[in-house]
Specification:
Blueprint: H1 2-24, H2 28-48, H3 52-76
Length: 82
Amino acid sequence: MIEFTIIAWVMSFLAIASALYAIKTKDLLSAAISMGIASLVVSIMFLLLQAPDVAITEASIGAGLTMAVFIYAIGKTERWEE
């Protein structure tokens, strides 16, 4: 039980740190990748909570499809914010 709590705290810290990095960075591609990492960490947390259907959905839509759309859109625009 203590191991699960430690893992949950570490995963929560990683998700929050990745989201904060996405907010603070000026590089749009780094922000999109950072949000994909945050989504992937959240899907791992869902797996640890024994919700595999939600984890698969979060990984495929949140980390996969959304990040791909963001990267495609960034490719059509300028990469750096002024």
